[in-house]
C-alpha cells in the first residue's frame, strides 16, 4: 500500500501563487501523470509530495499518514529527475548502490538488491562502467536502479525522459511502464507531453495555472474533456472548437452542428468526408503519410479534418463534412462542458 492524497494543497511565494488548493487522490500501484503547460505547477506539486518544498496550506498523505511536516528522507519515496544526477566518477554499481551505503544497509543485503535491480534493468553487464560510457537510456536506467534498490514504493519523476531522442523516449516509456506494473510501484510522473501522458498513465492530472483542470483516465480526458482547455491540450491535431449561433448552427453558416451551446468541440478524427454532409471548402492540405489533415472553412469558422493518407484533396475543393451526434461536444461561453448539449 502506498497511496498518495493531496488535500487543499496550496503554494505561494510572496504574492505569486503557484498552486491553488489542489485536491488529488493517487491509488496505490498506479501510474499518475501530472500534465500541463510550462509554469502550471507540475514540478511544484511533485516537490511538495517529495517534501523538497513546503506547502503554504493543505496536507499531503502517503498511505493515509500525514507527512506534511516530514522531511523527504522519512516519506518512503524515491525521486528521478530530468538530469538523472549520476555521479560521473562512480561506476554504475556504485551509483545504484550509493543510497544504500549512506543508509548503512549491510553489505550482503546491498549486494543482493544491486544484483536484482541490475538484472531487472538489463544493466548487469555494465556495472563497472562510468556514466560517461553509457547511452542516455542506460543512464536513465541507472537513475531508476537507484530508486529501486532503495525499495521505495513511491517513485516521483520529473520529466525523466526529456534528454532522450524520440526513439529512445518511446522505448523507455514502454520499459518504465512495464517495470512499474511488474513492481507494483506508485509512480507520479511529470511531463508537458500529452502523448507521453496518454500512453503511460492510469490517471492523468491536467494542471492549468495552478489548478486541477481535469483528472481521469486517458480515455476520459480524450472522450469527455471537461473544459475547452482540456479539449485543446489533449489530442493531435487538437479538437476543433468553433463558435455557434443561438440556433446551434456554425457561426456564419446554416450548418447545424448537432449541439446547442456557445461552442462546438469536434475532433478532427471524428469528422468524415461525405458529399451529403455540411458544405465546406478546403483551405489547405497537410500530408502526414498515414493521415491527411484538411483545413476546411464552414461559415466564419475553420475545422481540421483528419482523413486517410491516400485521400486526394486540394485547396479550393468543395467537400461535405459529417460527424455523429455523440462526437459533438458542447461548451458554454466560459469554456465548460455542457452536459445537456444535444
Ligand atoms: N522558488 C520559486 N520562487 C518563486 N516562484 C516559483 C518558484 N518555483 C516555481 N515558481 C513559480 O511557480 C509556478 C509553477 O512552477 P513549476 O516549476 O511548478 O512549473 P512546471 O509546471 O513544472 O513548469 P515546467 O514545465 O516549465 O517545468 C511558475 O510560475 C514558477 O515561476
Ligand atoms: Mg517543471
Offer a few descriptive terms.
342 residues; alpha+beta; Rossmann fold; OB fold (Dihydrolipoamide Acetyltransferase, E2P); 2 domains; 6-stranded mixed β-sheet; 4-stranded antiparallel β-sheet; elongated; binds adenosine-5'-triphosphate; binds magnesium ion
Give the arrangement of secondary structure elements.
Elements lengths: L3 E10 L2 E11 L4 E5 L6 H9 L6 E6 L2 E2 L10 E4 L11 H11 L4 H14 L15 H14 L4 E5 L7 H18 L2 E6 L2 H7 L2 E6 L2 E6 L1 H6 L4 H6 L6 E4 L19 E4 L5 E16 L3 E8 L2 E8 L9 E5 L6 E3 L11
Bound molecules: adenosine-5'-triphosphate (ATP) and magnesium ion.
Any overview of this molecule?
The protein has 342 residues and is of the alpha+beta class. It has 2 domains: 4-227, Rossmann fold (3-Layer(aba) Sandwich), CATH 3.40.50; 230-331, Nucleic acid-binding proteins (OB fold (Dihydrolipoamide Acetyltransferase, E2P), Beta Barrel). It has helices spanning 42-50, 92-102, 107-120, 136-149, 166-183, 194-200, 218-223, 228-233, and strands at 4-13, 16-26, 31-35, 57-62, 65-66, 77-80, 154-158, 186-191, 203-208, 211-216, 240-243, 263-266, 272-287, 291-298, 301-308, 318-322, 329-331. The strands form 4 sheets. Strands 6-7-8-3-9-10 form a 6-stranded mixed sheet, with helices on both faces. A 4-stranded antiparallel sheet has the order 2-1-4-5, with helices on one face. Strands 15-14-13-16 form a 4-stranded antiparallel sheet, with no helix packed on it. β13 and β14 (291-298) form a beta hairpin. The protein is elongated, with a radius of gyration of 24 Å. Residues 13, 16, 18, 36, 38-44, 192 line the site of adenosine-5'-triphosphate.
Amino acid at each position: 500500500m502506498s497511496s498518495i492524497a493531496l488535500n487543499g494543497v496550496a503554494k505561494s511565494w510572496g504574492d505569486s501563487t503557484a498552486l491553488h488548493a489542489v485536491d488529488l487522490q493517487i491509488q496505490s500501484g498506479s501510474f499518475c501523470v501530472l500534465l500541463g503547460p510550462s509554469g502550471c505547477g507540475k514540478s511544484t506539486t511533485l516537490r511538495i509530495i517529495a517534501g523538497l518544498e513546503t506547502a503554504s496550506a493543505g496536507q499531503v498523505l502517503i498511505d493515509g499518514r500525514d507527512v506534511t511536516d516530514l522531511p523527504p528522507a522519512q516519506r518512503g519515496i524515491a525521486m528521478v529527475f530530468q538530469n538523472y544526477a549520476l555521479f560521473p566518477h562512480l561506476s554504475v554499481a556504485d551509483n545504484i548502490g550509493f543510497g544504500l551505503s549512506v543508509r548503512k544497509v549491510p553489505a550482503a543485503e546491498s549486494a543482493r538488491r544491486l544484483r536484482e535491480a541490475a538484472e531487472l534493468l538489463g544493466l548487469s553487464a555494465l556495472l563497472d562502467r562510468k556514466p560517461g560510457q553509457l547511452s542516455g537510456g542506460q543512464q536513465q536506467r541507472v537513475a531508476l536502479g537507484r530508486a529501486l534498490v532503495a525499495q521505495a514504493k513511491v517513485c516521483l519523476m520529473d520529466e525523466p525522459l526529456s534528454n532522450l531522442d524520440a526513439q529512445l523516449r518511446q522505448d523507455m516509456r514502454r520499459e518504465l511502464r512495464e517495470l512499474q506494473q511488474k513492481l507494483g510501484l506508485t509512480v507520479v510522473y511529470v511531463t508537458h507531453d500529452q502523448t507521453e501522458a496518454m500512453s503511460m498513465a492510469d490517471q492523468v492530472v491536467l494542471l492549468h495555472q495552478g489548478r486541477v483542470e481535469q483528472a481521469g483516465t486517458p480515455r476520459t480526458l480524450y472522450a469527455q474533456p471537461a473544459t475547452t482547455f482540456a479539449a485543446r491540450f489533449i489530442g493531435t491535431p487538437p479538437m476543433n472548437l468553433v463558435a455557434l449561433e443561438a440556433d446551434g448552427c456554425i457561426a456564419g453558416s446554416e450548418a447545424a452542428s448537432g449541439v446547442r451551446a456557445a461552442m462546438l468541440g469536434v475532433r478532427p478524427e471524428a469528422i468524415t468526408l461525405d458529399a451529403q454532409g455540411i458544405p465546406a471548402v478546403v483551405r489547405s492540405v497537410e500530408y502526414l503519410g498515414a493521415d491527411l489533415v484538411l483545413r476546411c472553412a464552414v461559415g466564419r469558422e475553420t475545422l481540421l479534418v483528419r482523413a486517410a493518407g491516400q485521400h486526394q484533396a486540394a485547396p479550393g475543393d468543395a467537400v461535405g463534412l459529417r460527424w455523429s451526434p455523440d462526437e459533438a461536444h458542447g461548451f458554454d461561453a466560459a469554456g465548460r462542458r455542457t452536459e445537456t448539449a444535444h
